[in-house]
Amino acid sequence: MAVWIQAQQLQGDALHQMQSLYGQHFPIEVRHYLSQWIESQLWDAIDLENPQEEFKAKRLLDSLIQELQNKAEHQVGEDGFLLKIKLGHYANQLKSTYDRCPLELVRCIKHILYTEQRLVREATNSNSPVGGMMDSMSQKYQQINQAFEELRLLTQDTENDLRKLQHNQEYFIIQYQESMRIQAQLASLATLPPADRQLREPALLSKKNTVEAWLTREANTLQKYRLDLAEKHQKTLQLLRKQQTIILDDELIQWKRRQQLAGNGGPPEGGLDILQSWCEKLAETIWQNRQQIRRAEHLRQQLPIPGPIEELLNELNSTITDIISTLVTSTFIIEKQPPQVLKTQTKFAATVRLLVGGKLNVHMNPPQVKATIISEQQAKALLKNENTRNDSSGEILNNNCVMEYHQTTGTLSAHFRNMSLKRIKRSDRRGAESVTEEKFTILFESQFSVGSNELVFQVKTLSLPVVVIVHGSQDNNATATVLWDNAFAEPGRVPFLVPDKVLWPQLCEVINMKYKAEVQSNRGLSEENLVFLAQKAFSSSSNNPDDYRSMTMTWSQFNRESLPGRNFTFWQWFDGVMELTKKHLKPHWNDGAILGFVNKQQAQDMLMSKPNGTFLLRFSDSEIGGITIAWVAENPNKAGERMVWNLMPYTTKDFTIRSLADRISDLNHLLFLYPDRPKDEVFSKYYTPPLCKRPSEHTVTFKFESHSCEWPLSISCGRADSMLDADGDFDLDDTMDVARHVEELLRRPVESQWSGQQS
């Protein structure tokens, strides 16, 4: 009902388009008075191309008529009397129109609802970019559905023509047999006496001439029918190929691209149900036309008539076979990709699906799918149709799986649940290439027949590139290879070529997408964050984002060459930040408590204008996966002078002992989170609740299993200089990190360490 309420608010051309949907075939009054009932029915659950669905459509028609009759009976008063007559008339009219073809009623209502929704969406979102995108998508879907409707009508037309041709040919053969009978009678006259022959011959000759003249005319007519039918099939196949190109080369390729970007943290690629329904309609239409062409060929063989039809039919048969071969081989796809960073001796899964398997009854003899790991060079040879002699680059356990048909969803798929890469055979590496830059792929292949073994297909599909590792320490470099490949691979490329350099803004999109996905946050990287990363990547000091828009970053800069003065690459540093944030800092990042991407000088400039005790959190420049606290305070060595102090970085190891919030709570000289938020206001909800009395001003509470102890701080704010190095950094190698020290103490026997301290 909601759609109808909105549809009544349409104006101008949109209102005119909506009104034009209605007429004697479906009165607008029926739409108005039964709006709630109409919009609550599952019209899309009925497959219009499946005659077996007719009983569902008939049930809906009967329910619609019953609803109308009920509505009519409840009308009272003078106006109600007229409406009662009108609704009763519409009930009879709809029953008369659709009783023998209830699927047409479903088609009509689906079209009305679809168009109304589109018109409402256009009117609502005409000024919205998202609305415009949705409108563009709905227009594309409408064009595809319209093309299918045109194909349905063309196929029905050629079916009618084929039946007419068959009927005429059968009659022609009967008349031809009659001609043969007359010929035999004329031949038998030779045995008769001359008088009898002269008496009967003229009539037979006249009949013979009449029949032969008819046969000559009818043979020309049949030839014309055959040529006309072949031309109609040519038109149908042209439209079929065009429709198939849109679905396979546009929609399916876009789905695969979304699947690839989802590997980098992009939005999910979406389901395959719509694509499968389109592919199944293609398969059904192709098969119907193929059967028609075969029947036309059979009629030609049954009654050969000289002419070009034989060549035309051969061409049509070749074309339709090529079309269905393309459809079948292109719709053998990987629904769930194997992991792109693949560790040996580790279980992994993948799912392969044949989108037209159910429609072509492939499941009647379920095919087996085999998975093999092959190298980049072997993948290139495979796509060139070169003989690879069943080569592989490793051994996968549990690599065979039978495709299963799921009746409820109509899907035919193979679920590899327990594969494991037992061993890998690496190729010779090129130049500076490391093992984590070498790409492999999982080849899935199968063979099956359709149409009572009329056509046999060998289908193959390649997974997205995978990088094989043998140790977890290789994971971050392997992830970099996968990230670059997923982001910058061109459609239809030679496996697995990617550009060696890309524009910085392109890379920014990629790492921002990856960051948000890994940290599971809507808070992505700001323009200031990206400028900081550009400064790090290019060793630049410019704060102007425009200075980096035309700059390019090479793969070597990304993850082969170390950053200046460091022993790690740009990606390794960034990956460390993501891992730390994902595991320990996610709520604080989402709260905006972590500025993160700020260098030491920027932190100093920001803090020096703030009151003492103001602090900020920034990712360490010098250590992978580290975060440091910078704060402003008095310089104990020079009265009246203030300076910015930087704590030595905390890492995952530290946060597994004590959380960031608790560590900030422990440090009493930290008062305000930059710019001016009291620290308890920001972090108190993350503090670990104390299990004992509140410690005194100079103590910190640590908890270990059932023991709780108070540890007197040996360093007060007045002796802060003993904790700091000459640059204002805490030197934990020469002084003491309280948490680490306590952790070490807690490893010793409880009785000897905490005698008299246990609470």
Helix-strand layout with pairing:
Layout: H1 2-7, H2 12-19, H3 28-33, H4 35-40, H5 54-73, H6 77-98, H7 102-125, H8 129-188, H9 194-262, H10 273-302, H11 309-330, E1 332-336, E2 341-343, E3 347-354, E4 368-375, H12 376-383, E5 394-397, E6 400-402, E7 404-406, E8 411-424, E9 440-450, E10 455-462, E11 467-469, H13 475-488, E12 501-503, H14 504-519, H15 527-538, E13 552-554, H16 555-559, H17 570-590, H18 600-607, E14 614-619, E15 627-634, E16 642-646, H19 652-655, H20 660-666, E17 672-673, E18 677-678, H21 679-683, E19 699-704, E20 707-712, H22 738-746, H23 750-753
Parallel strand pairs: 2-11, 14-17
Antiparallel strand pairs: 1-3, 3-8, 4-6, 4-9, 5-8, 7-8, 9-10, 12-13, 14-15, 15-16, 17-18, 19-20
Helix pairs in contact: 5-6, 5-7, 7-8, 8-9, 8-10, 9-10, 9-11, 10-11
Organism: Pundamilia nyererei
Subcellular location: Cytoplasm; Nucleus
GO molecular function, one term: DNA-binding transcription factor activity
Keywords:
disordered C terminus, 4 domains, Transcription Factor, Stat-4, activator, Glutathione S-transferase Yfyf (Class Pi), Chain A, domain 2, transcription, transcription regulation, alpha+beta, SH2 domain, 5-stranded mixed beta sheet, 5-stranded antiparallel beta sheet, elongated, Immunoglobulin-like, 15% strand, 759 residues, DNA binding
